[in-house]
Design brief:
Blueprint: E1 9-12, H1 26-42, E2 47-51, H2 62-72, E3 77-82, H3 90-104, H4 111-117
Parallel strand pairs: 1-2, 2-3
Amino acid sequence: MSQTPKKIGFLSFGAWHPGGGMTHTGGDALRQTVELAVAAEEIGIDGAFVRVHHFARQLSSPFPLLTAIGVTTSRIEIGAGVIDMRYENPLYMAEEAAAADLLARRPRRRRDACRTATVARPRRADLVGIGLARDGRLGG
């Protein structure tokens, strides 16, 4: 019986606090996350993922960060663990993801788009000017 090799990665929330620790600013959190991904790739880690938290002292802009990780690494799989679609314009997000893919010269984990789309709440879609069908798909 053949076994599929296991993969290991990390998920960063990128928390920062002005009064303590080594991560005092949002810029520190972003730079340290890129440095963590580079170091993780160097020791053979397979994945680097970020969790997005708006309105908190944590990572809030995944695509510039994923782009920076993508252009400074070559092998590690990158992506966003969760993106809450209540705060996103899905069309703009798709453009940002595509630009990140092009700059990194490799695709992000394609499952991200599927996973995040299921978080979208149709009753809130009108806030970003997007019509959704009853099942949550664009164009409703």
